[in-house]
Amino acid sequence: MFIDKAKIFVKSGDGGDGAISFRREKYVDLGGPDGGDGGRGGSVKLVVDPNMTTLMDFTYKRKYVAGKGENGGRSKCYGKDGETLIVKVPMGTVIRDEESGKIMADLAHKDDSFVVTKGGKGGKGNAKFATPTRQAPGFAEPGMPGEERYIRLELKLLADVGLLGFPNVGKSTLLSMVSKAKPKIANYHFTTLKPNLGVVAMPGIESFVIADIPGIIEGAAEGVGLGLEFLRHIERTRLLIHVVDISGVEGRDAIEDVKKINEELKQYSVKLWDRPQIIAANKSDMLYDEEYFETFKAEMEKLGFNKIFKISAATNEGVPELMKEAAEMLSKIPVTELEIKEEDRFVEEEKKFTYTIGRAEDGVFEVTGSFVDRLLHAVNVNEPDSLRYVHKVLTNKGIFDELRELGIQDGEIVRLNDFEFEYLL
């Protein structure tokens, strides 16, 4: 089975919490704060594995979570960082953010890797909050939460040459003749359901990878059948060999087939349509009217194609010459990276802790949101020093200014989740 698309959930580890601790030693009555920082959470990293050829593994496992960072300890001991989770993917995998649909990375080379979610930063221990005026802070910073998102993996085959054409024109037979690939071959009027890769290695030429792309049908560029899925696989190819049935035995018109296929390519991608093409007029051993090939060749030249080969994949007639021409053309075509438009590129948004302020139904001013959750997680509201820290954070964040703009009066109640206090001017 060939699986070329998968959707998975990835989550990096949360950072460990900073510790609240004080020195407790013999003969030391009032030891200072010695709470250590929490460890950073583990990241999720996608790494190319050259031995993988499909995304099949991701049909069985769809959730990937990295390890959490350890909490800080006493004596200024730092928590251990969470372990990075390595997820192996095939070479040629494109990573998309599921929510935005934008491309995060293109893993097109053997040693490529990409950190798809970064681990949360560890929180500071209370030793870091000690100042000349706050010598025994009873609070510490919680670890930052890890990132999480759904991502879509898309596999785009890495082949130098793509075999192009309608179903049943002989692409699979040609592939089997020029490489050790063993595609299933039968006289069916429907397309191969998976791309087949083979390596062409002939004396006197540089070897190259060739792919039998599943047959394209009319309407492929609009997504008819599996058209868009298959068109995607030829985006990376540098050269196209367009195979047509020249015999006419099954009622196909070779000239019209070339026009239709190229129209589909043009609708899908102008750059793909503009890629170099060799026309391979196949099944010549079954051609009854020899003059038709000359007519076909003249029409191809009118369309701008000047590399036309008369071949028979079944008997190998003309096939070595076709492969040598392909190798010669490849030697002059540079390898190009998959182009990602700026508007299609994923940009990581800065993580922010937010809050909202409003008056609740009971008349109390209420402040809620991730900023409040994080603040209250860090402090002990029953400890005076911690309360002074809360007041300082709320002031620096501008929350008291916003409350005054909303018309809060002296003595009114402010609620932060389950914690309430009286506002004093």
Automatic annotation (TrEMBL):
Pfam families: DUF1967, GTP1_OBG, MMR_HSR1. Mg(2+) binds at residues 172, 192. GTP binds at residues 165-172, 190-194, 212-215, 282-285, 312-314. It comes from the Bacteria. Keywords: Cytoplasm, GTP-binding, Hydrolase, Magnesium, Metal-binding, Nucleotide-binding. GO terms for cellular component: cytoplasm. Residues 159-331 form the OBG-type G domain. Monomer. This is GTPase Obg. It comes from Clostridium collagenovorans DSM 3089.
